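User: Hey, my collaborator sent me this sequence without any context and asked if I could get a structure. I don't really work with proteins. Can you help?
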Amino acid sequence: MAGEFPHLTIDPFFKPHPYVYPNLDVQGPELKLAERNRAQHGAEIIRQLNSIKDQFEIDRAQQLPQNIVRDDAVYVEFISDWDFSLNFDSFNSDAATPKYQLVNIKKEVVKQGDETKERFKVVVMMTEGGVSTFLKKAAQYLTDNTKNRDGQDTGLPTNRNLITNIETIQLAALQAFWSDEPEIPFPSEDEIVWWEVWFRRTDNDEERSAKVFQNLEGIGATIGQQTLVFPEHVVKLVKASARQLSGSLILLDNLAELRKPQQLNDFITNRNIDLQDKQQWLEDLVNRTDAIFDDRSVVICLLDSGVNNKHPLLQRFLPDNRMYTFNPAWGTNDSWEDGGHGTGMSGLSIYGDLTVALSNRSRIKILHGLESYKLYNPADPHDEQMYGAVTELACNTPAVDFPNNPRIYCLSITDRSTAFHGRPSAWSAAIDKIAMGITLETPQLFVVSGGNVEYMQQHIDATHFSSLNDNESIHDPGQSYNALTVGTYTRMDRIDQNTWPGITALAPNGGIAPSNSTSLFWDSIWPVKPDIVMEGGNLGVRGTQIMDNIPTLKPLSLDKEFTTYIFNPFGDTSGAAALASKMAAELMTAYPHYWPETIKGLIVHSADWTGTMLNGINLNTAKQSQKRSLLRTFGYGVPSAEKAFYNAKNSLTLIAQNSIQPYRMVGSSVKTNDYHLYDLPWPVDILQNYLTEKDVKLTVTLSYFIEPNPGNRRYSNNFSYQSHGLDFKMIKPTEDIEEFKRRVSAAEENLNASYSGTEEPWLLKEGLRNKGGIKKDFIVSSGADLATRHTIAIYPKRGWYFTRKRLGLADTLVRYSLIMSIESEDLAVDIYNPVEQLIKNTIPV
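Assistant: No problem. I've predicted the 3D structure and written it out in structure-token form, which is a compact way to encode the shape of the chain:
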């Protein structure tokens, strides 16, 4: 380590201030409206709505078996005109017993030659009274005009934002509920398949659920055992044909979405060439390792294929009473062939790359332990499961048995068969629930592998590197907001030419690993993923032929068949997730008072991009598109253990862990509440007197977890996935404190006062960093400039706690971690000690 100075705490150095963000209460940009003949369009809309109303009489006349219960509602699909949107929020009533309720939103994109057209489809649950309400709105569109503030007629139709862009209104077919991406085909009509069925939650869920399940059993459907519960949805697995479900659509009360269930098909191990059985290596490492593990130690809970905990290098870290399995018939041992998978994860989670441990003769002290929950047995694949619910069970079980151990959950099972492209799934949302503390009552750190690019299985040659990585989306559930999603880079490019003549490394040193998947083609509304990259190993190449049997191009871990092989090369995104979990466990051990949000934030905060990743890009002058590609390929780069754990004298890390209430109920309305204003203990004298004209780097990371509310309604302003948003602003050199406060919040005095000066000179800027629960950015400036930046504000942004008043969570208190670092290249300058003394001597007011 460059220094042994711990991070400094600045929890008390803030004051809350009332906050009103001017843009938080508006409904987004003005809706572009199609040109219509008002009389003709209004009459057509009324005709289509009347056709929907007639359906109620048809349904009432339909004879149903006695064991089937009918609901007084229909599902209606509204389709926009091409290249026009809809006023989504107008299709939803927030009443306790709504007459109409928005179910899902889909965007349809069609390419015709070089042109691309798009339109939107919304499904709305409507009672007969709801249809009557829309008929009334359409009649007003025909005859009534809006009035301006002075009460004068504008000549513009009433309800024009709702009616104008509607092209078609029809009863929703089953396909209207299919919310997977276009590349996931809708099942054929008579194929019996498992469906992931999303139901809307209501005030009488138990009664309605019983009725729905009675109806499903009445049509011969099979209902899965697991249930996932979200704020506005209940998710179940149902096995039936599309024909069966289509024939009973009017019976599926509260249906919201249909999706394809997740599949488990992403374990990656390669036996490669076995390391020779050198028992003395094993015995030497066992004798040199001090294991300090008890019921209060940090543990890494591996959700994997089981572990052979009889391996001599694991026995002390993974006792039998911490071995679990989803299916008792599977046992708890590692079921994966060719060296195992969970066992390989265990080795890297405890020792890191064993090449380092074996080549170093010094003693090793390990302070964390392991748990294993076997989620998957490739030798005995089980029926379709609700993997979000199974993951909740897997996390709950050891936490109940051993409540005193702080945990990191590590999941290296991913699904590439379902293309989510950043959109939350039931699985990723379940992980967000676990991390937020909704499932286990306290927040948890969850590490997830990003999922692998399959060069060998797809028989791809070297000419496709790295375009294949660019096109491979992060696998489900790696899109989880709250999880630390880990991708891969590599430093492993050395090949013994005597053993492997003519073979070179496919990926360059410091660049993207062949296994790394990306979020380059995700919609910009979804978070940056991966968050970080760790060593994932490399592939060899001869000419254009790719080779995966070169052990020196993989980190070294443990083989489940330890009596024969002992060690096993093990890498890719699974190995990277294990390495990240090890780092997290060591950080949590060193700083036991740090929250999971802080540990995740510190790992991301310490990360940086290699020169190979930057590929000549100067971040000061780079285009935003270049920065976006960098972020969505490598996240924030490679974490530095040196920076994550300690400071040197010429560096300084300040950490605040605080809670904030972003919103509040005022009467029957939700308003924004507070923002936090930090007056930072700042090394002003050092920056001004010793670093005046020298470059100093300021890094700020804001880390927080969100409560998920999944559902395919993301284009509606009122149906955001995240419960809340937070961001930061920093004072500018030319700005006084009152001017800064006015810039942060319209709730301060003198709302109409102007402020001048340039924008904050962040390298990434808010447009790139403002997605997800990690907000990180940098400023590189002179010491004189940085000396004035001693004030930072943490302020709220939109979330469903704000927009979904009916759910009653507007007054929720939420946590965040603020991490700030100052780094100087001048090794002789002491930044740390003056600030440490300032903190000790200052009592914040």
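In plain terms: The two ends are 36 Å apart (CA to CA). You can pass these tokens on to your collaborator as they are.
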